[in-house]
Amino acid sequence: MRIGLVGPAEEDPSLLRMAGEFLLSDCGVEQAIYLGLPPTLDSVLDDWGRQVMLGSASEARFLEQAVELALGHDSKSLDALLERDRERQRLSALRCVPAAPARAVELFDDKVVLLVHDKALLDQEDIANAFLIVYGRSKSAALHRFGPRTFFTPGPLHLGRVAILEREPEGYLAIAQFDPRTGEPHGREAVHVRRSRMVVTP
Fold first, then answer.
1. 155-166: b or e for each residue (b if 16 or more CB lie within 10 Å)?
2. Could you tell me if residue 42 is inside a domain?
3. pTM, whole model, 2 decimals?
4. What CATH number should be reported for the domain holding residue 32?
5. Per residue in 51-78, pLDDT tens?
6. Are residues 6 and 32 in contact, defined by beta-carbon separation less than 8 angstroms?
7. Would you say residue 66 lies in a domain?
8. How much is the mean pLDDT over the chain?
9. Crossing angle for the helix pair 75-90 and 59-71, nearest 10 degrees?
10. Do 81 and 103 fall into the same domain?
């Protein structure tokens, strides 16, 4: 599994679409997690979806158009509509960490990875049970190890960093950082874990 990580873009939401394109299209991640505030991502996805669908991005409008084209025997336009809808559906892979006090939890075997906007809201029990803490609120990108735990943030998006969590062939989870504007790599760290699945805790 390859998971993209995108820092807060509240200062310039237009950067969020660029970062999403880089991670979903160029890097082929299964999902990209926005570490900022949900309203920013919602607004970007709404605008993005409307542009992809050339108007309303609602499911009802898509079905309406599909029926019209099918009844009109316009197969070329119907194919184009279905292709745009596949692009719209792809946007669902760009997700946001839940609003506090909830947090996203990624499980790698018996290891817990927490993903939150603000790590200051985590309590001692959260941190004690986590192997890796990924957070968004920060002035810069940072990776710090404290005993068996690692804290990581790609930093605010305007500084030009996104990250990818991915498994190495040896079973290690790697944290790779990139400039989404150029694709230039900015380092890679590895921590030892295995399988994964995501849940959200209240």
1. bbbeebbbbbbb
2. no
3. 0.83
4. 3.60.21.10
5. 877 776 667 776 777 677 777 777 777 7
6. yes
7. yes
8. 86
9. 160
10. no
Tell me, yes or no, whether 41 lies in a domain.
Answer: no
Whether 136 and 149 map to the same domain: the answer is yes
Number of folded domains that form the chain: 2
pLDDT at 202: 53
Q: Could you list the beta-strand ranges (E) of the chain.
A: 2-6, 31-34, 94-96, 103-108, 111-116, 132-135, 142-146, 149-153, 162-167, 172-178, 185-192, 197-201
Are residue 111 and residue 188 in the same domain, yes or no?
yes
What would the DSSP string read from start to end of 101-118?
T-EEEEEETTEEEEEES-
Place of tokens 């200051």: 120
User: Where in the sequence is the domain holding 78, given as residue range(s)?
Assistant: 47-92
Are residues 136 and 63 part of one domain?
no
Structure tokens at 122: 């985590």
Residue with structure tokens 């985590």? 122
Q: Are 155 and 164 in contact (CB under 8 A)?
A: no
Per-residue model confidence as pLDDT tens digits over 190-199: 886 655 555 5
Could you say which DSSP state residue 30 is in?
S
* Residues 105 and 184 occupy one common structural domain: yes
Q: Are residues 135 and 161 in the same domain?
A: yes
Residue 68's CB: how many other CB atoms inside 10 A? Answer: 13
* C-alpha span between 162 and 112 (Å, rounded): 21
Residue 85 confidence (pLDDT) above 80: no
